[in-house]
Specification:
mainly alpha; 159 residues
């Protein structure tokens, strides 16, 4: 097994899952080939038995060669299936770690984006905070002036 193929470090969780799905697809196709090969082997074993029952030894020997070929292919596919299952399991075990490393919201990045959206450069956090406090003070002063104007108006109209 090559470690590089099953190392999912650096992939996003969705990309890692898609990569694993590719391995699962290969596994299913290989399992299908194994089933076909098993059927092929059984067919040739039946032909060996038939040829021997009819006393045609040369055909039986040729059929035996096909049985051996199918058996070798079946063993190869079985080994490939075992390897694919092992690789898939290795990759599946990495998924929780990948998901844990992903942050849905990066607060530092969000803060910087908000600064930029309000017209400040990253690093101007103190200036932005001072500006916010001054705006709050201005708004408070404006509200106080409007309240004083209303009080004056109300006092004048009731006299």
């Amino acid at each position: 097994m090559q470690q590089k193929e099953t190392d999912l470090a650096g992939l996003r969780t969705a990309d890692a899952k898609a990569y694993i799905v590719q391995y699962l697809t290969t596994l299913k196709l290989t399992e299908k080939k194994l089933a076909e090969c098993t059927a092929e082997e059984a067919k040739w074993r039946g032909r060996v038995a038939l040829a021997r029952s009819k006393g045609v030894e040369d055909l039986a020997q040729e059929a035996e060669k096909q049985v051996e070929r199918a058996t070798e292919q079946k063993n190869s596919l079985s080994a490939e299936i075992a390897e694919l299952k092992s690789q898939i399991e290795t990759m599946r075990k990495q998924l929780p770690g990948l998901a844990a490393r992903e942050r849905s919201i990066d607060p530092d990045l969000l803060e910087q984006e908000l600064l930029i959206a309000t017209g400040y450069s990253p690093g101007d956090e103190e200036l932005a905070a001072t500006d916010r406090r001054l705006k709050d003070l201005e708004q408070s002063a404006t509200l106080d002036a409007e309240l004083a104007a209303l009080k004056t108006k109300y006092n004048c109209s009731t006299q």
